[in-house]
Amino acid sequence: MHTEHDWITTPVTAGLLRGALDVEHTGRGVLPHRLPARARAQNTDAQLAMAESQPSGVRLVFRTRATAVELDALRTKRAYAGAPPRPDGVYELIVDGRPTGQAGVTGGNTVTVDMFAGTAEQRPGPAGTVRFTGLPDGDKDVEIWLPHNETTELIALRTDAPVEPARDPGRRVWLHHGSSISHGSDAASPTGIWPALAASLGGVELINLGLAGSALLDPFTARTLRDTPADLISVKIGINVVNADLMRLRAFGPAVHGFLDTIREGHPTTPLLVVSPILCPIHEDTPGPCAPDFSGMSAGRLRFVAMGDPAERASGKLTLGVIRDELARIVRRRAADDPNLHHLDGRELYGETDFAELPLPDGLHPDAATHRLIGERFARLAFTADGPFADQK
Known about the structure:
By secondary structure, this protein is α+β, with helices and mostly antiparallel strands.
């Protein structure tokens, strides 16, 4: 089938993957996971199962003299009944640290979600092939960043020269946890999600536990953060707790303490940054739950609206304003005994002035330009000389 090159097939193994915390062996290949098997076994939420299987921040990394690379992959793409097709996932090629190309695959499984009926139907499809050619001659480090928004089963890696594991870059490892905004919702490419942009600017290796709809202070996520080796850790907490209407203020404070306690069991002195939510006007003063507004679906427009009543704050319902105040209070109190614990108000990453210039297209998620803004600001605030993640060497 492939006649223009003498292909060498290299098994895809955990040793070629960065950013994945587990690799599931399937009948066809391997499926990267961002939560380990023990955490997945304790989860019953289909939204989280989908999110953690989407390889946001996961990349194939190897060293080779190859000038052509092919990757067979089986994607699982989501579609929404009554809405135009969502953009295809993007595979992004990085050679010696420089963006070199983007491509996609065809075929794959499709999960069609009917948001009116609350149902989902899966249609199986064939694997596809992503191909990059014209790579520069000579030894080089190659990264293929996987789509941040499509579950991706990796079947075969082919090159026209041998592959070996990439050298350890010697960079610090940054472990980040957050919501769909950290996962990369509405970003244009896998290296365009704000944590990937910030990691590149900060010169660190990213492990992204941004989990769409699922930054909910789950104990198994805290244990995953505890057990994952890292030099720097950040947790961005708030928006999912509000838009899921998950808990009241009485439960939220102790849950945050417990989450941070668990992380500290494995990382007692690691720089740990607690980030509160970016500006989101629908939930600044209005509690959840959050619900989709279907009125524009036929024209390809989906917006989210807050369903709570501002008066319910008196009974302990959470808003983003309440959460920011509580997170600031908790970090201030804990930092008296934990000098490596830090706080960042998310509105420093995206605030009222930014919303006026770059509004959230669906009322909840940033677009590609806003991901870049947030990534650049996080890098400046966290990784520069006065930031909590500044390199002290």
